[in-house]
Structure formats: structure tokens, C-alpha cells
């Protein structure tokens, strides 16, 4: 009888592991299904205002919108550190199907990660209900720059004088309770007019930045006329005017300036690199399919380009996987995380440019003509690979590498049982 009990007993940690694996498998399968369908619709959405509403609805039905939430709140725990490899795969899968959808979903995941990390329990509970109801979240932090936009005014505000988004005292009174209101705009807001729960930063009267989640109605307050991009058109990244919206502690996320807390601020960039990886893989698959369908894969020059592209794709994948693991490790040194993620950003960009060059050389002029699949994929990927401060990211990472005393084999990983440099005897 004792042996029977022992055979049927499942340790609690094994039960939790099995549950985690079940959620991971379900979400990964859902991501593949959503990505495949999004890929079929992507060409039709390659137009001004072509927002992927059906794909977002599909993602909601498949459980992807709620997936970052803890299981207790109706999600799959995708934001948990142990699920970082799964999240990397999910983001890459969606990016493979549609980079525009991947950009929107990555913003949704980023917003929920910030909410779960910094918000009060009551705020988390309320916003989790909005997620389960199908609201799309996003992170909008970009301020309009004078001379950087074709529009001079939006919502009656002069962009040159707006200074972005600010929190002001409602009715001229000292703020108390919910006596705040918003004034100003955000620019390059992906999903403007469709994201109904954006997480934004607003300048407080003391100059510090406060995170908050605003309640928006779909189809309001957005101006997309300035989004006339070469690629990523379906991401609908426009201007959003928040002027007059009430705000208060009930929608605040964390303390002032929490948004910029490191290593999460810089370290979270691995997520958009994962989406870019999916786009790179899509271009690679088009290249490979072209060589197969034309029977030109045996040409040594074509084979060399395909081999070089395969190296670039796998290099990007390895960088993203390690960045995801390192950024999710609560014991990792913050400077180390930031440096590695910065290198990942540049490594993925380089891989994308290399694969694009080889695909264009192999396919030739046909790859620049619609309806060849490479034409749109190349425009979307080229646009999405542009990112803020790439030179600063590279030189900052280089400074960390220069100052780190660990040898190359231990620069980004810790070998089990190996002593630290200061523990090695000087006479060895």
C-alpha cells in the first residue's frame, strides 16, 4: 500500500512545472495560428489606415491578449521570468506572420509587464479585467519634436509648444484624489485610434514623469495623416491628443520616474528584437522558397548567399534567446543586462540587413515588384529595424565590455563552479 501511494504521489513542484508546460504549449500553438492567419491578411492591410483589427480579435479569442497575466488573473503567466523563452518564441512567431501585428502585440505585452511590475494590486485587478474584455494595451512614450512632423497642430494644440503630455491640476486646484487632467499629445503612437488602454508617461508639475493607463474610446482623438511610411503601414503609428481627459491615482502606475528604472527600461528592448527576428525569418523563408521554386539553389553563388543568410538568422536567434534569459534573471547584474540587450539590438539589426541584402541579390528585380512576397516584407522589416539611438547603444555596450574584467568565455554567462577573477590565486 505504501508503494502505491508513492507511485501516485506527484511532488507539488512537478505539478506546477506540468501546468507551466501546458500553458506554454497552448500559447505557442495559439501564436502560430494567429501568425499564419495574419500572414494571409498582411498584403491587404498594406495601406494607410490598414489596422489589423481581425488579427487583434483573433489574438484575443486565442488567449494571447490575456496571456501575459498571471494564471490567477485569467492569463498564462507569460510575463513570468521562467516563461521568457516562451515569450521570445511567441513574439518571433507573430513577427513572422506580420511585423505590424508583432509591433502592436509587443507594445501590449510591454504595457502589461509594466502594470504587473509597478501598479497597485487594485489597479492590476481592474486593468486585468480590461485585458480579459479584449482591450488592446500599448506603450506610448514619444514626444512630438519641433520640425519632426509635417503637422503643425493637432486638436488645437501647437506641437512646437505642447511639450508632449502633462498632468495638470483640474480646475486650477491643488490635485487631490482624482483632481488631475491630461493635456498634450503623444507621437508615433502605434495603434493610435485602436489601442484603447495606452500606458503613457505624463510630466507632473514637479517635472517628474508619471506612468498611467488612459481609458480611450476606439476611433477617437487620433490623427494618422502624418503616418505615410514606407513600411509598417498597418501599425497606424500616429498622433494622439489626450487633452481634457481626467486622470488620477486610480490609473497611475507606480511612482514618478519608475518608467525609466533600469535595467527594465533598457533591458526590455529584447522583446522588439524578438519580433524583428520573426520578420527576418519570414524574409529568409521567401529566399529559400525562391531558390527551390526556380531550381537555382544548386548555383554556388546562390548557395553561398543562402548559407550566409542562414548564419545571420541563427545568430539573431541565439542573441535574442540569451537576451531573454539574461533580462529575466533577477540575479543578473543590471549593467550586464543592459549591455547585452544593447548588443542584441544591433546584432539583430545587422542580421536583418544581411538577410535582406542576400534575398534581394538572389531574387533580383522581381523582389521589388508587387505582388512578390519579398516586396512588402522587405519594406516592413527595413522600417521596423530603425530604432532610437543605435550608435549610443553600441558604444555603451562597448564601454561595459572594456570595463569588465571577466574573460570572453564568462563575459555573458557564469560557468558552474568556476571561481570569480578575484578568487583565482595570483601564482596560477
Q: Write down the overall mean pLDDT.
A: 89
User: How far apart, in Å, are the first and last alpha carbons?
Assistant: 58 Å
Q: Unreliable stretches, pLDDT < 50, 5 or more residues?
A: 1-16, 148-161
Shape: globular
> Could you tell me the radius of gyration in angstroms?
23 Å
How would you characterize the overall build of this protein?
The structure is a single chain. The protein has 428 residues and is α+β, with helices and mostly antiparallel strands. It has helices at 2-8, 12-41, 53-61, 84-97, 99-118, 121-132, 159-162, 264-267, 270-294, 300-328, 334-363, 373-384, 390-403, and strands at 137-140, 153-154, 157-158, 165-169, 180-189, 197-203, 209-213, 222-223, 238-241, 246-247, 252-253. Strands 4, 5, 8, 9 and 10 form a five-stranded antiparallel sheet that branches. The longest helix has 30 residues, at 12-41. The protein is globular. 43% of the residues are buried. Residues 1-16 and 148-161 have low confidence and may be disordered.
Amino acid at each position: 500500500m505504501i508503494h502505491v501511494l508513492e507511485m501516485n504521489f506527484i511532488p507539488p513542484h512537478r505539478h506546477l512545472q506540468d501546468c507551466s508546460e501546458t500553458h506554454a504549449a497552448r500559447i505557442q500553438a495559439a501564436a502560430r495560428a494567429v501568425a499564419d492567419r495574419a500572414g494571409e491578411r498582411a498584403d491587404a492591410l498594406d495601406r494607410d489606415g490598414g489596422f489589423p483589427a481581425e488579427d487583434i480579435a483573433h489574438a484575443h479569442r486565442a488567449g494571447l491578449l490575456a496571456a501575459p497575466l498571471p494564471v490567477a488573473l485569467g492569463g498564462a503567466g507569460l510575463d513570468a521570468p521562467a516563461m521568457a523563452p516562451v515569450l521570445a518564441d511567441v513574439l518571433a512567431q507573430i513577427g513572422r506572420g506580420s511585423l505590424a501585428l508583432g509591433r502592436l502585440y509587443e507594445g501590449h505585452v510591454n504595457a502589461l509587464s509594466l502594470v504587473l511590475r509597478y501598479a497597485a494590486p487594485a489597479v492590476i485587478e481592474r486593468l486585468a479585467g480590461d485585458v480579459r474584455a479584449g482591450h488592446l494595451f500599448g506603450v506610448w512614450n514619444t514626444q512630438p519634436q519641433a520640425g519632426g512632423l509635417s503637422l503643425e497642430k493637432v486638436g488645437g494644440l501647437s506641437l512646437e509648444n505642447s511639450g508632449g503630455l502633462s498632468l495638470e491640476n483640474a480646475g486650477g486646484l491643488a490635485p487631490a484624489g482624482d483632481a488631475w487632467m491630461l493635456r498634450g499629445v503623444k507621437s508615433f503612437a502605434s495603434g493610435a485610434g485602436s489601442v484603447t488602454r495606452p500606458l503613457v508617461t505624463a510630466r507632473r508639475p514637479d517635472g517628474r514623469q508619471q506612468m498611467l493607463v488612459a481609458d480611450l474610446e476606439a476611433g477617437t482623438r487620433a490623427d494618422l495623416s502624418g503616418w505615410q511610411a514606407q513600411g509598417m503601414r498597418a501599425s497606424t503609428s500616429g498622433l494622439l491628443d489626450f487633452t481634457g481627459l481626467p486622470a488620477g491615482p486610480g490609473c497611475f502606475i507606480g511612482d514618478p520616474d519608475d518608467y525609466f528604472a533600469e535595467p527594465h527600461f533598457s533591458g526590455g528592448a529584447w522583446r522588439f528584437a524578438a519580433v524583428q527576428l520573426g520578420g527576418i525569418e519570414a524574409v529568409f523563408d521567401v529566399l529559400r522558397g525562391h531558390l527551390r521554386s526556380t531550381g537555382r539553389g544548386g548555383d554556388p553563388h546562390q548557395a553561398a548567399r543562402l548559407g550566409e543568410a542562414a548564419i545571420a538568422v541563427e545568430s539573431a536567434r541565439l542573441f535574442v534567446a540569451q537576451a531573454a534569459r539574461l533580462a529575466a534573471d533577477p540575479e543578473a547584474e543590471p549593467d550586464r543586462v543592459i549591455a547585452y540587450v544593447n548588443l542584441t539590438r544591433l546584432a539583430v539589426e545587422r542580421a536583418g540587413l544581411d538577410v535582406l541584402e542576400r534575398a534581394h541579390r538572389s531574387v533580383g528585380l522581381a523582389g521589388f515588384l508587387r505582388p512578390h512576397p519579398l516586396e512588402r516584407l522587405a519594406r516592413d522589416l527595413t522600417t521596423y529595424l530603425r530604432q532610437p539611438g543605435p550608435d549610443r547603444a553600441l558604444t555603451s555596450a562597448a564601454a561595459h565590455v572594456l570595463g569588465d574584467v571577466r574573460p570572453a568565455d564568462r563575459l555573458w554567462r557564469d560557468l558552474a563552479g568556476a571561481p570569480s577573477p578575484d578568487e583565482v590565486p595570483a601564482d596560477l
